[in-house]
Amino acid sequence: MKRRDVIKNLSILPVSGVILGSVVPFGSVLSAPAAPAPAKRDLFSELGIRTFINAAGTYTAMSGCLMRDEVVETINASAKEFAFIDEVQDKVGAKIAALCHAEAATVTAGCWSASVLGMAGALTGMDMKKVGQLPNLTGMKSEAIVQKAHNEGYVHALTNTGVTIVVVETVEDVAKAVNEKTAIMWFLNYAGPNGQIQDKEWVALGKKYNVPTMIDMAADSTPVENLSKFNDMGFDLVCVSGGKGLRGPQSAGILMGKKELIAAARLNAPPRGGNIGRGMKVNKEEILGMYVAIEHFINMDQAKEWKIWEDRVAVIENAAKKVNGVTTTVTVPPVANRTPTLTISWDIAKVNIKRRDFQEKLSKGNPSIEMMGGKDNSVTITVWMLKPGQEKIVAGRIFEELSKAAV
Ligand SMILES: *Cc1c(COP(=O)(O)O)cnc(C)c1O
Predict the structure, then answer these.
(1) Of the residues 63, 107, 112, which should be mutated to test ligand 1's pocket, given the most ligand atoms within 8 Å of the CB?
(2) HSE-up of residue 211 (Cα within 13 Å, Cβ side)
């Protein structure tokens, strides 16, 4: 796509109202036209907030994902009635549990809060005194077992409840680590390949030592089978993000698993207060939106969606490759964010631009485009967060800036 065409597309922005007002003469014999609908308020332009084409991916800082239309419609419609949150959670939880082969489920304020609440439930059970006491663990278990390769930032969700992380590497380490204080064995799905103990074996060890197992599969909703796989495998608790590949509300997620653990987690969550989860509030709109998002995701044609992603990648890849000195590769990450991922690299001797400067040109262009940086001479792109047709704009701008830098 040529730059000219991009600009052409931009020049057809609506100018409604103005035209109408200037054409219809005052005192016209035409019957008075209905008052024009007031222009929709655009807070992005009103407040000067930059919006952009997201060719990067599902990043929290970039506002995650665009919710599916069905989700937005659900949110708008459900905002107009009152309901008791517990009843919404009961009904939605039963539906999500059935969709994902879990005994029970509850909608949380994200995967991170699902991990906090799952951890809390494992500590307190149905004991309201313990619920009120967290993060003071007197009289409770106090340790979570985590593999070394899984021990990164997200474990803060566990330590939020007061527990200590006990790091292990081998099956023998687990045998030594388990004691009467062990509350959970936690597994970070995307770190799976880097650890010595794999998911099935982790579950088996949990059962052997009678310790509940919990998995964080936040961004791993593709392939869709993952949404039931870990429940079928025997994990006691499964945590998922709503606002990544599922394209539900970014401030929602799912905690699912064993009935008694979900019930205990809910004691630690809103709408109840006097617990550590009180700040992790989800309202009926997000709970229902989360349900519609996962229902749609599970029922949609995954192969068709994948083909759309591949076609978009091809459009961008073909445009970039036209520039002498540019090479491209398409990969699919082994675990998290499984979507076709395009890396564009260039030979600095032939295309003289630093990656950071290239990103800045795209970011500051019109329309603004964001992508992820790679090395000094490469960028990484995913297309699953693009709106239909935006791949052409991205392709055009990448071609334009790389061509300009060609020596
Ligand atoms: C995104 C992410 C989280 C946090 O999920 P939220 O839904 O944003 O709360 C936790 N763990 C992993 C691995 C993630 O990628």
Answers:
(1) 112
(2) 28
Please tell me if the CB atom of residue 137 comes closer than 6 angstroms to any atom of ligand 1.
no
Q: Round to the nearest angstrom and report the end-to-end CA distance of the chain.
A: 22
Domain 66-299 has CATH 3.90.1150.10: no
Residue 154 near ligand 1, beta carbon < 6 Å: yes
Q: What is the reported pTM?
A: 0.90
- In this predicted model, what pLDDT tens digit does every residue of 324-376 receive, in sequence order? 999 999 999 988 899 999 999 999 999 999 999 999 999 999 999 999 998 88
Is any ligand 1 atom within 6 A of the Cβ of residue 117?
A: no
| Contact assessment for residue 276 and residue 134, using Cβ atoms and an 8 Å cutoff | yes
| Cα(266)–Cα(203) distance, integer angstroms | 23
* 123 CA distance to ligand 1 middle (Å): 22
Distance CA 209, CA 168 (A): 15
Q: Which fold has domain 302-405?
A: Aspartate Aminotransferase, domain 1 (3.90.1150)
Query: Do the beta carbons of residue 247 and residue 224 sit within 8 Å?
Result: no
* Domain extent listing, the chain: 66-299, 302-405
- List pLDDT tens digits, range 248-301: 999 999 999 999 999 999 999 999 999 999 999 999 999 999 999 999 999 999
| Distance of alpha carbon 311 from alpha carbon 306, whole angstroms | 9
Distance CA 90, CA 311 (A): 40
Q: Is the CB of 241 under 6 A from ligand 1?
A: yes
What does the pLDDT read at residue 13?
39
Q: Is 379 in the pocket of ligand 1 (CB under 6 A)?
A: no
